[in-house]
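From the shared-data thread, chain only:
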Amino acid sequence: MAALGWLTPRRRSATARSVLAGEASAEAARKTSQEFPVHGDERAAAFFDLDNTVMQGAALFHFGRGLYKRKFFQRRELARFAWQQAWFRLAGVEDPEHMQNARESALSIVQGHRVSELMTIGEEIYDEYMADRIWPGTRALAQAHLDAGQKVWLVTAAPVETATIIARRLGLTGALGTVAESVDGVYTGKLVGEPLHGPAKAEAVRALAAAEGLDLSRCAAYSDSHNDIPMLSLVGHPYAINPDTKLRRYAREREWRLRDYRTGRKAAKVGIPAAAGVGALAGGTAAAVALSRRRR
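Structure, as tokens:
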């Protein structure tokens, strides 16, 4: 793995594995990010959690369904994936044991396969299982940031390859995700550090901000889960999207803005940072209407 000499020194409050995972994710994200010609606030960006924030359900489970269809593993493992996904959709929160089991299964499944092979398959799986599960409202918020000339990154525990595909399909700048070790383009079945979850997400955002010259006080972050409070607390504009009970309570106590797309109710009016402007918000609203019509 390449040296991460571009990082700035900082107080390391997270575990060493969280820091390693975050730095590896930031490095991978910078290699695959897209450039946008729109001029905007170059020191501001937006960070979006993926599962249940941008997309209904968990990307890793949808990816597992696609791999099963391609005979990467057996029916009993698909049943476990289905149960975990159903639990996630009904409960609306992440179960650490479920997520850990899913990650271990995914690593064992892809071990020995080429990264390029999984990227090609990932494109197909996005079309089959993920494209119709994007929340139009959250997509509109991301587009509003882009229209304002800000970069937009996904931040997720899903594999960085899967996250990068989703980001590219949505026209976002790039993605921070869990980095699986590969040697000569072949997966070893191990992770670099740990899954990009909880504190590791905050470390990834912090590392990317240092590398990109971002001012986190001018950045925004969006998530549904209390596990992402470390990431949300880093930025000047935190937003709770489809929040679980703990995040909703935490956000209300700190007067963070909330939006719930699961039932159509609006917990609070959601704008975007002042740097984005009224015109960008109008553009985001128009995008939401267009996306909603497209899904009908």
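The longest strand covers residues 151-159.
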